[in-house]
Amino acid sequence: MVKPDARRIEAFLADPGRTRGILLYGPDEGLVRERAEALVRLAAGSLDDPFRVSDLRRDQAAADPGLIAGEMAALSLTGGRRAVRLREATDGLAAAIEAALAVPGDTLLVVEAGELPARSKLRTLFERSPVAAAIPCYADAGATLRQVIASTLAEAQVTADPEAVAWLADHLGADRALTRAELAKLALQAGPGGRVTVAEARAAVGDHAGLGLEDALFAATAGEIAAADRALGLAFEEGAQPVQVVRAALRHMQRLHLALAEGLGALSPREAAARARPPVFFRHEGSWARALGAWTEDRAAAACDRLLAAERACKTTGAPDALIAARAVLDLARTARGAARERG
């Protein structure tokens, strides 16, 4: 059974050896597609060589149960390893895929799928097979997302201020393909040798984490329950994913906790916003100042613990993740409202 450690996934994908089949699954369609294309190129040298690449759709494979195995058995007329790419696979194709993996040869089968539960027939097949691997593809976050941002800009010979990278990490990541596209637009605007500031990032990049989400978090930590609820609803309408919402809330609370530890609450709203890390955009200065007045370090630390628990709950199979995320954000608003009332 080939089951690479999460920390070694990228290394494994760069050199899967003689692995016969790789299942790529998860909510990040852009990352699934990016990894699938990289694997096909690695095995066959291109994405569209008719002699070395077979690109199959789910409906084709479903209509002909022997199609995948037949393509795995085919030989390249020009020499070299072949790749069979199967898109939008579901559990209904598990038997046909199992038969295909049993075909002798070195052809690589790359299977793309959406989110799959732990008991999925496809996941079980690839996780238990001695010649295959199942690779989850989740939305980029944290250090991984920052690395994607830095490497994508570096490829275009563009650098970014640390504050700009932090802002981009808060507003990208829902989908790898969208992240790449927005960074490419930003790099084109900066030009080779250019440097991106926070202001330039804000002006150039569409907010795929949702401006509504940023508004929701600032409103929540300021104790503005109704405003947080409205903005959060907008964020979900714009495509924000529940686990992404919770992660953004955690980053926001960590930022607030740091600001409290540094005593920014004693400063004027403008100075407190400017000295935050990263700096707070001017339209959120008021909410930021109210949050600094409502929260204490202990309360912020406890909120971070609750958000970590909410993130784990969102990842639990069958959990009502949208409800968990909404409750986590509104819990911040209620805590801030209660704290403000206590202070009079």
TrEMBL record:
InterPro entries documented for this protein: DNA_polIII_delta
Keyword tRNA-binding attached: no
UniProt keyword list: DNA replication, DNA-directed DNA polymerase, Nucleotidyltransferase, Transferase
Membrane-traversing stretches: none
GO cellular component: DNA polymerase III complex
Gene Ontology molecular function: DNA binding; DNA-directed DNA polymerase activity
Keyword Transferase carried by entry: yes
GO biological process: DNA-templated DNA replication
Its EC number(s): 2.7.7.7
Descriptive protein name: DNA polymerase III subunit delta
Protein species of origin: Elioraea tepida
